[in-house]
Design goal:
Length: 363
Amino acid sequence: MKEKKMAIAVVAALVIIFALRIWFTVAHGCGSIKCDNQLATQNLITLRSGVLEKMGTLVRITVVAKNKKIAQESILAASDEIDRLQNIFDWRIEDSELSRINNEAYSKEISVSDEMFEVLSFSLKVSAKSEGLFDITVGPIIDLWKEAAQSGVKPTQKQIQAAKEKTGYKKVVLDDKNKTIKLLRDGMRLDLGAVAKGYAIDRAIEAIKQSGAVGALVDIGGDMRCFGKAPEEKKKWVIGLQDPRNMDAQSQEGNILMRLDLSDRAIATSGDYRRYLVIDGEHYSHIVNPKAGSSAYGLSSVSVISESAMESDALATAVTVMGFKKGLELIESIGAVECILISDKPEFKLVKSSGLDRLVLKK
């Protein structure tokens, strides 16, 4: 009788274990959320959002939580937060807060949200640190080069100069007390593409934490941040950094340059090996040098690692424009920030910041 009861108990335990290993799918919005429920030592599950389309790019969210309910709520909270912020920062949305600033802030002071003021304040600080080479006022220059790419005709120096006159971070006036913004030149257009994704990642991570998850990765367009427990009993959040030196032209895939420990860190990469403009057969980086009024050159890839995705995002763009020497000096002057720089072809020279090696995992 005892043996029979023991056999029943063993079978029941195996059924429970098998059930806990089932993969399940939960439909949500524009994508599906797939949960890989691993029987980990602490009974944690890993939930993945699948590929979502937000902020004009692809978004992936991975959450580690104690149960299915918390994991689902965490992903939905992060997804909703990204959507909310897109309606603030996206210039392509006619009634977004950024569109309102671009349309009205020259004629009068505009009150802005806490989120917008935080991003604007941070951006102007990075502009000052980079001697104006990071600049959220580059909208007119970006527009000029996009039009040139469509027409196939490179802009004239006169057109470039006219666009430059509508730029300059010192022409953005913020009132800290009243949280307002004023643009000092007619025709100015702010573009937050080099900072808003990072900010959205940071806020999505906070939403996940508040929902009770114990670990997560949020990836927006290749920029990402991780925190807490890694999935499926892994000890660390590990990411592979792509090598632009041997990219396949058709698949846009390359070998892994190095594997990095991204636990409780963020990474952002800027480069012209994926996104660029073609005008009359010549390639131009999508990243603009505001002082030259044309695309930045000299670095094919810049990856910046820090504790904040917004900081990594902005600094990656700043360093791309600043170049090897000044860019590396800027990174070394900031605490808890590392970078990997790769020069343009054909040299593809690789330079790392002084503390980067401690994050590189041995093969």
